[in-house]
Amino acid sequence: MFSEPRHTQGGWNDVNCGRAAAGPCPAGYISWYRNCYKLVEEPATWDAAQKACEQHGANLVSIDMSYDQAFVAGVVLFLNNTLVLCDLVLQDDGSFAWTDGWPVFFTQWGPGEPDNLKDEGCVSMRGSPLFHGTWNDTRAPLPRRGFLFTRFNAPPQMPQDGNKLQ
User: Fold this and answer.
1) To pair with 26 at 20 to 30 A between CA atoms, which of 54, 61, 83, 149?
2) Which residues form the C-type lectin domain (predicted)?
3) Burial bucket for residue 86 (CB in 10 Å: 0-12, 13-18, 19+)
């Protein structure tokens, strides 16, 4: 909601408070920094969640900086400390990459992670009080409660030296 300034005495005119302000995101999405997020609380496997995102022209959430990490960690708290699936997957060379094309600039792995235990190749965010907000590699076929769509502009270019974070 918004109000337009009253130009007469420096006060506010709340005539338009009943009308929602146009935002940068489609209806049902939350704007955070430069991205648009949509929370889905239904359980889904990684593949099913990614497919649902793609049907909306989106991807599973990518976390490229600490402010995105803080936002998604807040969503995990909202979901009562359950896991949220992320868009980060294990590559053949042992590194991780965002499937939406963004380079990996930031990670928040939990202690001992990633461990690739039992062929884990996808990433979720932990919600437990001890490890809240840290990342864990997990297996794609296991359903998780909650995932986020994210929509944004084209991914930035990879650095010239091609470095990837593990």
Assistant:
1) 83
2) 32-137
3) buried
Q: Which two tokens stand for residue 76?
A: 């995990």
Which three-class secondary structure state does DSSP give residue 53?
Answer: helix
Each domain of the chain, given as residue ranges in start order, spans: 25-151
pLDDT tens for each residue of 79-128: 776 667 778 888 888 888 988 887 888 999 999 999 888 778 888 888 88
Contact 160, 145 (CB under 8 A): no
Burial class (CB in 10 A: 0-12, 13-18, 19+), 122: buried
77, two tokens: 């708290």
